[in-house]
Description:
alpha+beta
Amino acid sequence: MLRSRITYANxxxxxxxxxxxxxxxxxxxxxxxxxxxDRSLTSRDFKSNSANxxxxxxQSLGAVPRAQNSARLAGQPATRFLVSCPAGxxxxxxVCVEVQARPxxxxxxxxxxxxSIDSNERIGRRLPTHQELMLALAQPEIMLAPxxxxxxxxxxxxxxxxxxxxxxxxxxGSVAIGHDDGSNAKSYRCVADPMN
Length: 196
């Protein structure tokens, strides 16, 4: 019964199938990059995510068309958004610290004077914390004022309505606590947060 089904067409088609399978296996094992014409392969010829940084020279890739304006933010260059300090200050301890100490004043006067500086253009300045002042004093441009400088750190006083204020008295970090009155006036410097 099997002999009755063997025909010339069946034999030729079976032979063609074996040759096709064998030929493609041969082609897969024998085709190299030298056999492929430059720029002849398209994205359909690659398995998804098979071309990575080891295969593609990333510096040879151009900008994505919609990302060509990525160097500009709302039409402004990226340098426009870098943080900066106001004139007369330097960056120390992540804040902008005035280089020159101001004349002695009480804590209340110093705090008010600092808050009124630059208040139209940016948030007003403030007195530095102990840590900010100590880190600022490590900068070669900043010297502790004679008699010490006020910080923004205050504590309850034994006198109603008054506060005691921490001041730095030596560049080595020595501190003093004094009443907030005219007799305890100290030099001070204001600090501001960096802005763009």
